[in-house]
């Protein structure tokens, strides 16, 4: 039973870390997209 609890805690920690990583990648991609849009607008004017 103890091993099962340890595995559950480890799985929960990994799941939380993965969610934070995916959210971070999404924010980075959004920032990169905004930078490209700004550069395109500056090039157009």
From TrEMBL:
<keyword id="KW-0472">Membrane</keyword>
<comment type="similarity">
    <text>Belongs to the EcnA/EcnB lipoprotein family.</text>
</comment>
<keyword id="KW-1003">Cell membrane</keyword>
<protein>
    <recommendedName>
        <fullName>Entericidin A/B family lipoprotein</fullName>
    </recommendedName>
</protein>
<keyword id="KW-0564">Palmitate</keyword>
<dbReference type="Pfam" id="PF08085">
    <property type="entry name" value="Entericidin"/>
</dbReference>
<feature type="signal peptide">
    <location>
        <begin position="1"/>
        <end position="23"/>
    </location>
</feature>
<keyword id="KW-0732">Signal</keyword>
<dbReference type="InterPro" id="IPR012556">
    <property type="entry name" value="Entericidin"/>
</dbReference>
<keyword id="KW-0449">Lipoprotein</keyword>
């Amino acid at each position: 039973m103890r091993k099962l609890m340890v595995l559950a805690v480890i799985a929960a920690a990994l799941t939380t870390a993965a969610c934070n990583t995916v959210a971070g990648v999404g924010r980075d991609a959004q920032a990169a997209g905004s930078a490209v849009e700004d550069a395109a607008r500056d090039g157009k004017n």
